[in-house]
Amino acid sequence: MKRIKNNLATDVNEKITKREYIAFGSSTAVSKAATALSGALGGLVASTYMGLSDKSFEIYSTIIFILGFWDIANDVIVSSFLDKTRKTYGNWGRFKPWLMLMIIPCNLVVIMQTAPIRAWFPEISDALKITYLVLLFFLNDAFSTFYNAALTALNARRTTDNMERGYLAAIESILTSTIGACGTYIAAVLPYVLPNASEAGRYFYSYSIITILAIPLTIWNIVVTKERISEPPKAEAPKLRDVYKQIVKNKPLMMYMISEIFGHGMSVGYGLMTYAFIVCFKNTPFTLTFFRDTAIQFEYFYDGDNFMALLSLASISSLVTTGISLFLAPIIRKWVDDKILYMCTRLGTAVCYTAMFISVFPFSAHTPAQIFVRIVIWYAIHGLTTGFYQTVPGLIQMAAYDYAEYKYGERNEATVSSMKNTLSRILGNCTNYVTNLLLVYVGYTAYADTPELMPTDSKAILLYIFAICPAIFCYFAVIPMFFYKLSGKKHKEIVAALNERRQKNLDEINKLEKESAEV
């Protein structure tokens, strides 16, 4: 059997191949499809599909919130291990073995987390359901931490060219936006594809198929990836405390991460979107008129049966504007600094959600059709900033890696990535916990099966929270970036100096590999 060699570039300036672009794009596409479906229906697993009582749901949410802080220790252990293990594993390199080892168990656990326990085992007690979910939480955290830290480190070494990084980010962004809407499309179509399955069952089967398909495509992506940034072959691993000191002293990275922390608060609003659509539109028939008083006027009658159809319309509305921004992002980047684009994106998002809140207030003064149209209009305008946000932040993080390498001679992507992931997960736990508590406070869980009976005031509060939270946190997220000093010109100068070092490292590694092969 032919051994798969570690695809290490011989030249630091070697361009990314078409094969790598295709492998990256195909694996990313399937991954984004799974993420989109999870975003559309995943939040309903614990809150609705499990059938937990209000008290049990509060207990489960509190347990997950507390256990989420395990990420602090878990990520430190994993990232430290990956960055300290400087040796290459045969022809596989440093990171690929961990990716190959973790990809199957990581995806298997995620599939198990979507199992419709309430429908399959109606007699199981709430205590057993909570135990099942908590156990899978631990397993998912252990596997995904290894996988995500190693994948981020490997991806950060694909290329040294900032424009190629932009192309990769653009590919991922286009796929994220285009396929991101598929979550709601798939959810809307599933009742016709699987008419005899429950809503929870449809989600489980479709998610399982997509996730299983992602495994071979992701493996292919891992195999064909080339590393173009490499350390000296005998570099000594730094002590963990020294790595964290470097991270704290990396001012561009810290400003970016603080901004991302504020931005993560948007999740409270985003997490409530599906629930807001359920309580506002699931059982409320109305008619939508498009292009009123024109030659192409037509009407759409919503019968109040499948609220996911309305989510699909909202996604379609933003798909065109997001596509425009994705097309413009790599072009505008040639003349406008990433920092400015990032700040404008945050401000644009904040303005859109502020306007959404204003336009639907007060809730009782508008019909369901008017509320839906107002949400969709501002959601669509928000799409003009989405493409930039999906492209630029990753490039800013890459620039911060370069700055660390330039200043300290070390990249330590696994540790930096894990630190950022730790913060994201802790914040994610906090926002999920707040979201879950809000669902109980507003009264959603009590009316999950009969949303039409939910009081109007409760529906209004749910919708207001969905609109105003992203706006507030986006305004805050702009502030740290005023202190971000790694401009485009300065970054180019740093990369030019770094490329000389990187090429020496590659030449030394290739020389040692050649000598080893001759022996």
Pick out its properties.
single chain; 519 residues; mainly alpha; Growth Hormone, Chain: A; 20 helices
Q: If you consult CATH, what is the topology? A: Growth Hormone, Chain: A
CATH class category label: Mainly Alpha
What is the radius of gyration? Answer: 24 Å
The secondary structure category is mainly alpha
What's the domain count? 1
Q: Which strand-content bin applies to the residues?
A: under 5%
Global geometry:
globular
Distance between the termini: 22 Å
> Architecture, CATH level 2?
Up-down Bundle
**Low-pLDDT stretches:** none
CATH superfamily grouping: MFS general substrate transporter like domains
User: What's the β-strand tally?
Assistant: 2
Please describe the biggest sheet, giving its number of strands, its sense, and whether it closes into a barrel: 2 strands, antiparallel
Spatial strand arrangement across the major sheet: 1-2
Number of helices: 20
Please bin the fraction of helical residues. over 70%
Q: Would you tell me the overall average pLDDT?
A: 79
| Secondary-structure element pattern, one letter each | HHHHHHHHHHHHHHEEHHHHHH
